[in-house]
Amino acid sequence: MSLGNRKDVRRSNLIMVLEAVFIGYIGYLTFELITQFFGNLTTSLTDLLTSIGVFTFLVVLSALSVGLYETKLRETFRGIIRRIFVSVALGYFVMEILSSTVMTHIKIHQYFLPIFAGSTIIALVILRYFVNRLGILGLGQTKIVVIGAGERASIIEKRMRREVDRVGFELLGFIPIPGDNREEGIQNEKLIHVKIDENFRNFVSDNDIDEVVIACDQRRGTLPVEILFDCRLRGIEVTDLLDFMERETGQIVVNLMYPSWVIYSNGFNSQNYLRDALDYAVNCILATIVLALAWPFMLLTAIIIFFEDVRNSKASIFYKQERVGLNGKLFKIIKFRSMRPDAEKDGAKWATTNDSRVTKIGQFIRKYRIDELPQLLNIFRGEMSFIGPRPERPQFVEQLIREIPYYNQRHNVKPGLAGWAQLNYPYGASVEDSMEKLKFDLYYVKHQSLMLDILILIRTVEVVLFGKGR
């Protein structure tokens, strides 16, 4: 076993022990919680330790069986959550069988095991977030080499400059090949001069490479199919640059897309039929909760807008504007007025940072997203969702569809109050900015799920509370 493999095994063993300790501690906290609610229980220390120990063993064993401790687990965070849920569910199922057969002598509260199992899922998800997503312990980190050092490969250098962008992998370097545009290519990264032949096979083996990223400018006649085929047979991942960037950065690099990649991908339509069926009901429930909490702030905002601007101008407190919604259907968006009534006397204009047309109260309510709250009515009408790409004006959409490829695909889902692009890209006011935001919008359209929606909601709350509005 190589030194690298021994390190990987140690990391996996460490995370397994760490999770076992976590589960045991959660079991203790669960018992203390039940004791607080139901008074002193007659459970002996031996029975408690036995229950916690057996359940911990079953969950860790299940996690081992579903691959959660594989040294190079290449899985999305959503996939990891699914595996955790399956592991705990299997452990819970077996524990229930044991409790009713061979462990009948153990007396413990009936709510202990269900609460223990639910809390374990939450605890393991949080732990795995820090371990896998932030690169703690190096678990899940892979060794990567990039074939290509030209213009396409340079997107990695430009988009993933920071160390935090590369916590999930170790990039050994870029291999220049014939056909690469070196003038627009890699400038500051390490270049590896090795021929893509038998020498490459040896290079991959000697350096314990886990993944090869294909990022060459010219594919025809330059890619050694037999060598790459051999890599796949040996369990080494061979990944297209677009898939790599999508996985690691949470965006789709629109300007590098090509038709065959779109054809062989899973498309830009949701396949989550249960989520689609419950979409309106869930959004209405969330809108009702937010309205119940936010109406005092909305009332106060309306009063301030009236006295600052509306009282003299006779304009409306609310601002209605036509936007493009699901499948290109037009609707009227509703917002608190944050600009002067004559803001568009010269026609539609992009909003900009420090826009002189914005009123004093407008600056504040934009910073904390209060101006967006009247859109709860759009949600009740079924025109918008809580999460989705921000709706754009039809005048701009016509221009953007002409100038940006695949722009119209963002209308495959309902527009939303909050979006993946708003969290990942600063305020934009140009075609170029729209291109950058589209990369995140298409990622959301392609990967829309309940877990991604929850992540966006949590991060949006942080934006609102700390005034990081974009």
From TrEMBL:
One Gene Ontology molecular-function label: phosphotransferase activity, for other substituted phosphate groups
A Pfam family that the UniProt record links to this protein: CoA_binding_3
Main location: membrane
Gene3D superfamilies xref list: NAD(P)-binding Rossmann-like Domain
KW rRNA processing (keyword) present: no
Membrane topology (UniProt): Multi-pass membrane protein
Subcellular localization(s) per the UniProt record: Membrane
Keywords, comma-separated and alphabetical: Membrane, Transferase, Transmembrane, Transmembrane helix
Record has Membrane as a keyword: yes
One Gene Ontology cellular component annotation held by this UniProt entry: membrane
Transmembrane segments: 12-28, 48-68, 80-99, 111-131, 280-307
UniProt feature coiled coil, ranges: none
Domain Bacterial sugar transferase: 282-465
NCBIfam families on file: EPS_sugtrans, EpsB_2
Entry similarity comment: Belongs to the bacterial sugar transferase family.
Protein name per UniProt: Sugar transferase
Species this chain originates from: Paraglaciecola hydrolytica
Biological classification of the source: Bacteria, Pseudomonadati, Pseudomonadota, Gammaproteobacteria, Alteromonadales
